[in-house]
Amino acid sequence: MPDPSPVIRVAAPHEQRAALELALRPLPAASRGPLLDAVGATAGHPLGPLDALLVAVERERVVAATWAQPSPGAAAALWPPEWVGARPPHASAVELALVKGAAAACDAAGIALTQALFEIADDPRIAALQGARFREIAKLRYLGRTIRAADSPTAPDAVLTFEPLTQRDHSRLKRLLKRTYIDSLDCPGLDDYRDLDDVLESYRATGRYDALGWQFVQQGGDDIGVVIVAEHPDADQAELIYMGLVPEARGQGHGARLIKRAIRLAADYGSDQLMVAVDEGNTPARRAYERAGFASWAKRSVYVRARDVAG
């Protein structure tokens, strides 16, 4: 008699720890533990910590798992299905059911955007995401640069001025961010999926939030751009979360000045490295980073699913 099809369902309490460890298997063990310990630290998020932890069960044994992890800004990060042992012949149907189950849980919670990353372009699990209405929006290149003593100059920029964020600047920042997204080459269209308050919440939750790392870029007293850098003290790294210019300020060499400012902020934090992710299709930005001494260390494809296209 052929084996019955696996049962797809939300993980039962006694299965949760094993299911999470399976779903997070791509992570190094040292990173997996702290993330598991922090699972319950998402109070107030519309999606419960384990509401979208889906398992495939055969003979009362978990054989595969996927997890849509609650993320800041009413979003979720999907960990693609992982199998106990080798990927079996019937994997595709099971993976599709797992991803659809996780997506349904996100929809029920009102999650606006669910995102997944793949390092391998022909990963067979991508078919499950496509079947659940995820679509590829970008190929990201991850770059890094070593911070040196010379990266802490005392002279101000001769062309631009930089002003740190204050509590009263929230509306000003939202207006400026919206302008910098116009005709952007970085993940074009992504801002259509989420509102700016959610975007800003996700930025603040990256690394250690410090308003001094959030800076308005001005020329002649006018706001023309934004630079946002966060510190990751546990890794001795800083991350350039976002930089952008309004359309009328582009093509004037300001991008290099913003990168230089981000490097300066990383140096002020005492970080050893500054990391950034850039859309591979954004050739001007990639070249500007490379001229500033950044080197590529990884590539990933970004897939997203918006709640309003579910059906």
**CATH hierarchy: architecture of the largest domain:** 3-Layer(aba) Sandwich
What do we call the CATH homologous superfamily of the largest domain? Gcn5-related N-acetyltransferase (GNAT)
Strand order of the largest sheet: 1-2-3-4-5-12-6-11-10-9-8-7
CATH topology of the largest domain: the name is Aminopeptidase
Estimated radius of gyration? 21 Å
What features would you describe in this structure?
There is one protein chain. By secondary structure, the protein is of the alpha+beta class. It is elongated, with a radius of gyration of 21 Å. It contains eight helices and twelve strands. Helix content is 28%, strand content 31%. It has a twelve-stranded mixed sheet, sandwiched between helices. This is Mycothiol acetyltransferase. It comes from Botrimarina colliarenosi. Its EC number is 2.3.1.189. Pfam families: Acetyltransf_1.
Q: What is this entry, summarized?
A:
It is built from 8 helices and 12 strands.
